[in-house]
Amino acid sequence: MNIVLDVQGLSKGFTMHHLDSRLAAFSDISFDLRAGEFLLLKGQNGAGKSTLLRTLYRTYLAQDGKVLFHSDHGVIDLVRAADVDVTHLRRTEIGFVTQFLVARPRVSAEALVAEPLRMAGWSAERALEEARHWLRAFGVKESLWRAYPTTFSGGEQQKVNLARALILPQKLLLLDEPTASLDAGARAALVARLRELKDGGTAMIGVFHHPDDVEHLIDRVIDLTPDAPQMEDREDVVV
Ligand SMILES: Nc1ncnc2c1ncn2[C@@H]1O[C@H](COP(=O)(O)OP(=O)(O)OP(=O)(O)O)[C@@H](O)[C@H]1O
Fold first, then answer.
1. How much distance in Å is there from the Cα of 47 to the middle of ligand 1?
2. Which residues contact 238 (CB under 8 A, 6 or more apart)?
3. Ligand 1: which residue has its CA nearest to atom 16?
4. CA-CA 20 to 30 A from 213: which of 27, 41, 121, 174?
5. Is residue 180 part of a domain?
6. What's the ipTM?
7. Number of domains observed in the structure of the chain
């Protein structure tokens, strides 16, 4: 399978101005990831899992190292890429699923979910049809589809979030505890969708509070706990 991501010597720290000190979130991380591979990030609280995902997504700027993403238009180092290129890749090739929906006032659940398809050129009608399919799959009740998610419960918002984030296959998908606050039915729908995306070639890096949920998807594990051996192959994995 083709390489999607080649991470070399990646380090990230935070300057704590009020303490006049610097905190290393992680340092010298290297790995690569191929199409269809699923990499689990694990480690104790504060080990740097979310920070690594955000650095790969370029929400945070790395201090050092390279994140070479093999995009449809060639290899691009996400650490040094122009903001405009990063924004374009986020719309077309790199997805990030967090625990939180960014709801917008007076935008219905179905419109929010259909939006990535509309931006990819789908007709309004087809996009809405597909959006409703995924809202149903994740267990959002039909009476809520045309309502505004700003007032939804935490779990309902997360289901809308997942439907929106996973409706369009991406080349690289970053997942930060997407199962938090989901009921069993939605967790099963999520795992089924991730399986489908993986089989279709999406490369994934995820942090899961309960990795048992995705055990059958995991190919490799990186443990960010200080002094832990960094990389484990699937055969050795105990999650
Ligand atoms: N924006 C920030 N400014 C300063 N320090 C930060 C920032 N974001 C994260 N940190 C620090 O970086 C370290 C790693 O945090 P991170 O959230 O990546 O850990 P995690 O492994 O995801 O933890 P958890 O399992 O608790 O969610 C923590 O010590 C945290 O306090």
1. 7
2. none
3. 48
4. 27
5. yes
6. 0.95
7. 1
